[in-house]
Amino acid sequence: MRIVIPLYEGFTALDVVGPYEVLRMLPGAEVVLAASAEGPVRDGVGALALTADATLDAIESCDILLVPGGPGSRRLVSDEGFAAWIRRMDAGTTWTTSVCTGSLLLGAAGLLRGLQATSHWSATDLLESFGATYTAERVVFQGKVVTAAGVSSGIDMALALVARIADRTTAEAIQLAIEYDPQPPFDSGSLAKAPEAARELLMSGRV
């Protein structure tokens, strides 16, 4: 099973690394990081780079497409070449997935029209401009299209996907392997639950 994760300048690291750590343990999985050119690709902060071992043009098909989000995704929505590549991959996938604002790139490729989808809470209006209906669920399955909400939800999405591809026991074994047992110290992980002071601090740009 070939899993392709496209990288682009300005991706969010956890959008890639979280689901990668889950999906790489799927029996028979081969994970390929691809980009417009081989070599290091910088994340949205610019301090971290992941290495693309293949070019997008060299990828003919895949079983799972996983599109990460990040600050760069909002610039990439107007790149018709990238949208065409996503459509070409989607034509042969068993699963087409996204994390965070990666769903904007699926939307820009025309894959979310008439579907329910999720994304980072800050991107809801832009997501719906592509014909999707935003839902605040953490992971949304619509046929073979799977979207995950912001950043950390990519781990949830990958585990849910493993359960569908293999079985629940395999997914639970992988969850145990990565010791994914969330016990957050604060209940501020969604816009609906975050205190007003936390929302104001985030919006101020100081964090």
Describe what this molecule looks like in 3D:
By secondary structure, the chain is of the alpha/beta class. The protein has a single domain (2-203), classed as Class I glutamine amidotransferase (GATase) domain (Rossmann fold, 3-Layer(aba) Sandwich). 34% of the residues lie in helices and 20% in strands. It contains eight helices and eleven strands. It has helices at residues 13-23, 71-76, 80-90, 102-108, 124-128, 153-165, 168-177, 196-203; strands at residues 2-6, 30-35, 39-42, 49-52, 54-55, 64-67, 95-99, 116-117, 133-134, 139-142, 145-148. It has a seven-stranded mixed sheet with strand order 5-2-1-6-7-11-10, sandwiched between helices. Strands 3-4 form a two-stranded antiparallel sheet. A two-stranded parallel sheet has the order 8-9. Strand 3 and strand 4 (49-52) form a beta hairpin. The longest helix is centred in the C-terminal third of the chain and has 13 residues, at 153-165. The radius of gyration is 16 Å and the shape is globular.
